[in-house]
Specification:
Strand order of the largest sheet: 3-2-1-4-14
Number of domains: 3
Shape: globular
Largest sheet: 5 strands, parallel
Strand content: 5-15%
CATH topology of the largest domain: FAD/NAD(P)-binding domain
Mean pLDDT: 95
Radius of gyration: 23 Å
Helix content: 25-40%
CATH superfamily of the largest domain: FAD/NAD(P)-binding domain
Length: 484
């Protein structure tokens, strides 16, 4: 146990965010650095419970009480070893995971939970700064080759694990740079891309090979993959965007979030001088109340939008844990991200009826109506129709599964009713030697689930290739994520 009285004498304290009027002028991450002494006190609040429910809350099974205790004792080298034992990329989850571990924290039953996510993040950052994160190249090569399609968190996790197991791994990415949604979907103010590049450099030194700008299924055929490699892992994500087919969808100015966010990142990194989709001096409406919508909001703020409105069809969540979502489940409560602090209005229980445009085909407004949830369906509230101005609309309503593109069709893998690639208990698809992990197999989910799936799939592929494995497998494909 860390500090036996830590949870009694120390309250929860997280790093402060930089002032809004300062941070919206740049694209840097929003948090100020917390002193290590302050972090130690937070780690000391961990009670080392007899049954650590934080393990249950974390799909990776992170050894949270152990590295909390090590940080409290200032044993940083041992702490990063325990953290890396279950998580390839704690610098990603420490920034981007919604921390279901914290909502499962036993202390959270009647107090504020331990700041697990921040302890994780600071542990890995201090380790990088101290040179404790080194390449782990295999002692010998197996002679087996693996192609990983997709370089998001699931693809990176499976690739790193299989490389360390001694296989020759090649990661194919159709974009110009590695990272998938980590690079092109996550704004710079949530995770600076130097953080991603730092980890990619480690993987290259370990022996993982990356091939960017290659659209597998077009530039490289599925038949070529199966001939060239002993195993193929599909980690293509769930990038099929949910549409909104209502009157006026054809007007100019309506974009999917993932049409908008990559350009914002390129601009933030000075890769382009001007974004083709620019919110400057425009009325912006975001349809979707989740994290992707908040990412659009923060990006539009930094571009100088005139006004921003984020619309959600569901009612506004309560600020307290609902009785139907008791501890240790992940509760659907009202949350305020850094972007929500910066600007904009949040409207709940609103349905978009139509897009309105001018004679030139340009979007000018939205017609919306208030709704109520009755007997499992949304009903319009009479007399609440109104219009709100809109020069730009971003659809941030989630994803419905992997794209049904040339790769999927030529591999001819089975697809389930939800649009996901079917796999068995070994992450194997219906085609011999082809595996799937991450959102492509389980549907849209969290980054922590993607990494857990990548690690587990790596163990299955390793066993397929050589008959046995020593790689850890934190989950099975049948496991379902917490509702978030």
């Amino acid at each position: 146990m860390a500090d036996p009285k830590g949870f009694l004498k120390t309250g929860r304290e997280t790093p402060k965010r930089r002032p809004v009027d300062v941070r919206i002028k740049d694209w840097r991450e929003v948090y100020e650095e917390q002193s290590f002494e302050g972090l130690q006190k937070q780690a000391g609040r961990c009670m080392d419970c007899g049954i650590p429910f934080c393990h249950q809350g974390c799909p990776l099974g992170n050894l949270i009480p152990e590295w909390n205790d090590l940080i409290w004792r200032n044993e940083k080298s041992d702490a990063i070893d325990r953290l890396h034992a279950t998580n390839n990329f704690p610098e990603f989850t420490g920034r981007l995971c919604p921390a279901p571990c914290e909502t499962s924290c036993v202390l959270g039953i009647n107090q504020d939970p331990v700041t697990i996510k921040q302890v994780e993040l600071r542990t890995i950052e201090d380790a990088f700064n101290a040179g404790l994160v080194k390449p782990l190249a295999p002692d010998r090569l197996s002679g087996k080759t693996v192609a990983v399609i997709g370089s998001g968190p699931a693809g990176l996790a499976v690739a790193q694990q299989l490389t360390r197991a001694g296989h020759t791994v090649v990661v194919y990415e159709r974009a110009e740079k590695v990272g998938g949604l980590l690079r092109y979907g996550i704004p710079e103010f949530k995770m600076e891309k130097s953080i991603l590049d730092r980890r990619i450099a480690q993987m290259v030194r370990e022996g993982t090979r990356f091939r960017t700008g290659i659209n597998v299924g077009v530039d490289v055929t599925a038949a070529t993959l199966k001939t060239k490699y002993d195993a193929v892992v599909l980690a293509v994500g769930a990038t099929q965007r949910r549409e909104l087919s209502i009157p006026g969808r054809e007007f100019k100015g309506i974009y999917q979030a993932m049409e908008y966010l990559p350009w914002g990142n390129k601009y933030a990194l000075n890769e382009i001088s001007q974004s083709p989709i620019d919110a400057k001096d425009k009325h912006v409406v975001i349809l979707g109340g989740g994290d992707t919508g908040a990412d659009c909001l923060g990006t539009a703020v930094r571009q100088g939008a005139k006004s921003i409105t984020q619309i959600e069809i569901m009612p506004r969540p309560t600020e307290e844990r609902p009785s139907t979502q008791p501890w240790p489940t992940y509760p659907m409560i009202y949350r305020v991200s850094s972007a929500h602090e910066e600007a904009g209005d949040r409207l709940y229980s609103i349905s978009t009826e139509s897009f309105i445009g001018n004679n030139e085909g340009q979007l000018t407004a939205l017609r919306i109506v208030e709704t109520k949830f009755v007997d499992g369906k949304f009903e319009k509230v009479p007399g609440t129709d109104r219009e709100i101005p809109a020069d730009l609309v971003f659809l941030a309503m989630g994803f419905t599964g992997p794209e049904q593109n040339e790769l999927i069709s030529t591999l001819n893998v089975d697809i389930d009713q939800r649009g996901n690639i079917v796999r068995d208990e070994n992450f194997a698809t219906s085609k011999e030697g082809v595996f799937v992990c991450g959102d492509a197999g389980r549907g849209q989910s969290l980054i922590v689930w993607a990494i857990a799936e990548g690690r587990s799939a790596a163990a299955a592929v390793d066993k397929y290739l050589v008959g046995a494995t020593q790689l850890p497998a934190p989950i099975e494909p049948t496991a379902r994520p917490l509702t978030v």
